[in-house]
Structure prediction request, 688 residues.
Amino acid sequence: MTDAPGSLPETITKHRETVASRMEDYLGRRDGPLYEMIKYHMGFEDRPDNPGLQGKALRSSLLLFTAEGFGGDPLRAVPPAVSLELIHNFSLVHDDIQDDDTLRRGRKSVHAKWGAKQAINAGDGIRDLSTLALVDLANSNDPELTVRATEVLGNYSLEMISGQVKDLQLTDRAEISVDDYLDMIEGKTCALLRASFHIGGIYADADEETVARLKAIGKYLGYVFQLRDDWLGIWGEQEEFGKSVDSDLQERKRSFPVVYALQRSPDERLSEFRDIYFSNGDLSDGEIDRVKKLLDDLGAREGTNDWAKKYWSQATEELEKIDMEDWAKSDLKAFGEYLLTRER
Amino acid sequence: MTDAPGSLPETITKHRETVASRMEDYLGRRDGPLYEMIKYHMGFEDRPDNPGLQGKALRSSLLLFTAEGFGGDPLRAVPPAVSLELIHNFSLVHDDIQDDDTLRRGRKSVHAKWGAKQAINAGDGIRDLSTLALVDLANSNDPELTVRATEVLGNYSLEMISGQVKDLQLTDRAEISVDDYLDMIEGKTCALLRASFHIGGIYADADEETVARLKAIGKYLGYVFQLRDDWLGIWGEQEEFGKSVDSDLQERKRSFPVVYALQRSPDERLSEFRDIYFSNGDLSDGEIDRVKKLLDDLGAREGTNDWAKKYWSQATEELEKIDMEDWAKSDLKAFGEYLLTRER
Prediction:
């Protein structure tokens, strides 16, 4: 592995361009007001300064990386990779409505630009396109594989939606256990990462036991990804992380560090944390700093890291047991280290 | 045809029970808060007074009727029929959010019961289940047919969503031409009825020319259905139609009769209609009555019927040219007459 520590391995990032160009070509075939919203969201606008595909395309890149890591032809797996990336994006458009987020990847969200009603349509359209992309881009000589991928992707999409249902239920409840939280994340975040590894394995003709281990790796990496995301939402550097760092606290999000702190045995620091965090109205800068300090004192900063490391170690255990090519195993380890330590 | 005039032929309605039982069985395999909302919407609740499948299941019934009408085995076409019915229902759940409708088929809408955010998830879940039902219920020996149906249904779903995008755009504009209106309805209403006939034809191995004619029949029947729906929204009897008849006028909907009246050459009656209809605030009972009278005087009542009849005659022209079994042709004609004259 020749990449700098703390960055994404080139064997993963190199697939982003393939996904972007196939997706832009595919979406470019359609016109009208629905597709105008969809192309805007994806970054494929019909204008000279077209920004290009938005986001890291992590899920599709990992899918192609996995297929290649078993000696498969990554090009064969482009149809499900495009499909998976579109499923992720359909969920983002609907998430932005549900969270009333006006910014997405530094640009106005579809919700902010066209309103919630039309954003529902835009997300619905992306979901339909995700299924069609799989069918339209697939090799028509292999309908069985297409049907299998459709089924696998559909089930993971449902797991993700179930996680979103639970997430919205949890925000209404003051007390959330670590188990509740992890159960929600298993759907909301882990489902599509499991899909990356699962389908990458299928398209490289991996055997059943290997696919089961790949699914486990995807799940554990999903936890690592989300726990670090929650950590950055509190202790990340504003400029690095690219979104308002204190907004998670300001919105009183039940992120992992908060849930971790809340399940500790009661003491004065926890009471003080509760009093500030569960108060109404905006938190002052002083209160935000105090909340961060209290979470740190309550062990949540270190605890979140420890949990992420625990999941990463479970992922590496599975990784040791599968017959993936050496370069791929090595780069997947680098990817895990990146997820654990990323600053943005 | 042994049915009473003005009712749905038994050869169409008989399929509803098949669809209902397969769908209830399929959805019954899943549990959790997402599926609780979905089962509620469909009418498949886990309680003794389970109301059973909601709605007429018209689209799926027509699909199975069409397959049978070409001598095909309707049971073979159950998977796409269930899928199509679920697509229709996903659109209803999201429509109710967009229109802020609190009632659906006489029961609280998902939107009213769980709020808009969760109703987005419920609709998303139904759409995923629609794709999975096709795959899971299909004969695994025929993956090509499953892929084809997935593609056809996905494209019609996108047409429907495009129509919904246009509908929301139109409600923001005072002046809408008849062409704008028909273009919107072609997506919003006609798309899934075209799917019924198109896929019914495919599953009965109809040839390409026949499938093209079936698609046209579906489109024309979609117009007939919608024009009568709009007519009933103004001149239907409250008790018969089952929803508040005057709400279309009260909400200043740009339904076909209104659009028809607005495109007439200006005269005093049209000016008076405009003054009342485009005023702000609630319309009094007297104003509602006056608006109805003006629309009638402007020819909109008769004109809407005439347009519906025109589309029905185009449908029958296509019907004459296809090689459908006699009983099916005859019952399809009865169905068209029913759509033209129905009171609810």
Summary: Residues 87 and 127 of chain A are 6 Å apart (CA to CA). The first strand of chain A starts at residue 103 and ends at 104. The longest helix of chain A spans residues 143-170.
